[in-house]
Amino acid sequence: MPATTLDQLVSLCKRRGFVFPSSEIYGGLQGVFDWGPLGVELKNNIISSWWRTNVYERDDMEGLDAAILMNRLTWRYSGHEETFNDPLVDCRDCKSRWRADHIKGRCPNCGSTNLTEPRPFNMMFKTAVGPVADADSFAYLRPETAQGIFVNFGNVLATSNRKLPFGIAQVGKAFRNEINPRNFLFRVREFEQMEIEYFVMPGTEDEWHQRWLEDRLAWWESIGIPRARIKIYDVPPDELAHYSKRTFDLMYDYPTLGHEEVEGIASRTDYDLGSHSRDQETLNLTARANPNRDSTARLTYYDPESRRHIVPFVIEPSAGVGRCFLAVLAEAYDEQMVKAPPPERVHAVTDALEAFLKSVGRNEKLAPETRDALVERGQAILAGLPETMPQIETLLAMPGADQIETGKKLRGQAQGPIDEYFRTVLHLKPHLAPIRVAVFPLKRNHEGLVAMARELRTAIQSGSFFRTVYDDTGAIGKLYRRQDEIGTPYCVTVDFQSLEDGTVTVRDRDTMQQVRIPASEVRAYVTGRG
Ligand code: ATP
User: Fold this and answer.
1) What pLDDT, in 10s, does the model give residues 316-348?
2) Whose CA is nearest to atom 16 of ligand 1?
3) What are the b/e assignments for 164-186, b being 16+ CB within 10 Å?
């Protein structure tokens, strides 16, 4: 079963070092996160899978890596200076600030409806360029990677000799001064995008839009997100961005949040290339492009058949790396009961949980929302015991739980059975797993076992594109659990039989079954399986 709450993922990411709050020792920076040792591996694997599918496995794509800082005129003619705004409201009572379309007329902080009228707030960050800070010496941090592709259209076309249709792919950082960053990695101020601008002959855009929708859904499936978990939102005309003819938003069913956008696939007409071109009156544009007196180029394509210069139409599949990372984790997450705990231990936990919920209900110091959230979650866990027992850890990490005295007793009763009878496992596709193989010696103080395990790790690692680690910091059972929790598909154990006949055991993360094979075959075994 996928994750049921966002808190389960937040807690895993913190516990195992996938994601850290940025500059945490100074109190952090809202809406900014750092990728820890396992997070950077998973993120890089997601990006390489996207790049492989969209650049290497097609013969109509090129890659690009444009700079984050660009001439600010880019953002004037793209329309961002004028229109990249969110509606901002202030709460007159508690002085907090909100995005109007996210709060339904009521302040989420104090409940007041005494709000200011919404006013536009531009989300682009500014920075000073060069030593003299005057009114003209600023640049924006890009709010999307797309514009780097559009302004390079002519360069790529001239150097690659591409014919339409073809596309340009780019992965890189984008920055948005979101009014209320929230929901962990879902809405942040610094994030990465994986974007494609696919250039087509005018008139063929609808067909290509549908094809990209199918191609993108197939990629999501290949990284472990089944189609059934994504809703396609055909954005109604009155919600479309000014450049878009039609947009499909892919909405993943996130735990806690429900269906939210993970990728947008927009049909952007000739708006972008047209807006960045000079001599627009000669281009027969269909879009209402921004009149441009500064560009030095016409971003057109010479069509040998009609012998005319045309402005291609554009299909843009654009996905956020962080939102993808969250979806992949949510889908892979599983808390499994490996063996049923004995009834008396389940009773003890049930009693402790009931007592905890009673104390929560009686506690006057907790804010009503905090109390309700704890009770609601606790009741759901109670109803699902014993299967839901591991969720008690997340319950106890919720705001307010630390103020409940009986929480300690509950933790005391639950921790033992959780460790003994349950496991958290990430069923990640092997090509995404931060670590593909972990090698253990059966005993860490046995020289022969340690030497063979270390050598085997080096042999598996050498020349492969995935990560292999050695670990001897616990008993084998514990090491298996730790690797399960971070999604390592294969654990290899070197035991006494290995010293005699050169075979080792390979344990499969999902089935927990072991096979015994020659150590020399492990690399091929784990490589061949994804
Ligand atoms: P939203 O409506 O959620 O603000 P958007 O429609 O503005 O998103 P796009 O401009 O279409 O988003 O950006 C493309 C992709 O970039 C989104 O599908 C999302 O995955 C990602 N993205 C956009 N804004 C953020 C953000 N603040 N934090 C994390 N990812 C983001």
Assistant:
1) 999 999 999 999 999 999 999 999 999 999 999
2) 320
3) bbbbbbbbbebbbbbbbbebbbb
Under DSSP, is residue 391 helix (H, G, I), strand (E, B) or coil? Answer: helix
Q: Ligand 1 atom 29: the closest Cα is on which residue?
A: 187
Instruction: Report which of 437, 431, 419 is spatially closest to residue 483, judged by C-alpha positions.
Output: 437
Per the listing, tokens 């209320």 go with 180
Model pLDDT, residue 530? 53
| Percent of the chain with pLDDT strictly greater than 70 | 100
Tokens matching residue 66: 């444009």
Helix (H) or strand (E) holding 126: strand 126-128
The number of beta carbons lying within 10 Å of the beta carbon of residue 465 is: 9
Neighbours of 400 (CB within 10 A): 17
pLDDT tens by residue, 394-407: 899 888 999 999 99
CA of 143 to the centre of ligand 1 (A): 10
Residue from 190, 230, 268, 323 whose mutation best tests the ligand 1 pocket (most atoms within 8 A of CB): 323
CA–CA dist 335, 73 (Å, integer): 51
- pLDDT (tens digit, 9 = 90+) per residue, 517-528? 999 999 999 997
Nearest partner of 468 among 430, 437, 494, judged by Cα:
437
Tell how far the Cα of 175 is from the centroid of ligand 1, in angstroms: 10
Question: Is residue 486 scored above 70 in pLDDT?
Answer: yes
Cα of 266 to ligand 1 centre, how many Å?
13
pTM above 0.85? yes
Cβ count near 72 (within 10 Å): 17
